[in-house]
Amino acid sequence: MTVNVYIPTPYRRLTSGTTHVAVTLAEGAQLLDLIDTLDALHPGMKAEIWADDDFKNYVNVYVNGEEARAMAGKHTALTNNDEVAFVPMLAGGSDSLVIERIHLNDMVAHADAEYPNECCGLLSGSGLVAKRIHRMTNTEASPVLYVMDPREQIRVFDDIDQQGEDLIAIYHSHTHTEAYPSPTDVRLAYYPDSIYLIVSLSDRAAPVARAFRIVDSVISEVPVEVR
Description:
- By secondary structure, the protein is of the alpha+beta class.
- Helix content is 21%, strand content 33%.
- The chain has a six-stranded mixed β-sheet. Strands 2-1-7-5-6 form a five-stranded mixed β-sheet, with helices on both faces. A two-stranded antiparallel sheet has the order 3-4.
- Strand 9 (120-126) and strand 10 form a beta hairpin.
């Protein structure tokens, strides 16, 4: 039987940029069997999504749109033509991030609308030029933490792919602190190829937006060019 696996942006370096991978499995195979076969086809995949004897806790796993952890977890049975997705959670360089004023204003408006909770969203485009903003749902509804709705993530990732764009930046707001990555932001920075943009509303009359790369817990600021 054949199972179709969706490969999110952070893992595509292991699949030569391929978005969907068809994997042939024996009848009666489970998710854990898929992991080893996928790793044999694209070495390094298992290390990205698997630790010890289960999926890494920040990797959301879906089978036909249903969360695997709500099913049988790693022992979830697979059938022919199943759709499987492994999506790292969205939570928490010297080149400039180029963004239009209308998109910056939209992010600030989003942050203000969700206040006192943190907002979150994505920027897509090409290179480091943002073309579209995608407002996302903070499932935590918290003033100190954001976790994006994983099903929204998949839908937006698919839309970005269909438009031939790339995920450029992940944005969220700080409601009472400066526009600088918090220890939680650093700990949950699972997308090292993306820019993290923070909108601070510590002074709601004068919002501040700054962008950063977070790679192996090292923070480096990215200049923002507003057009």
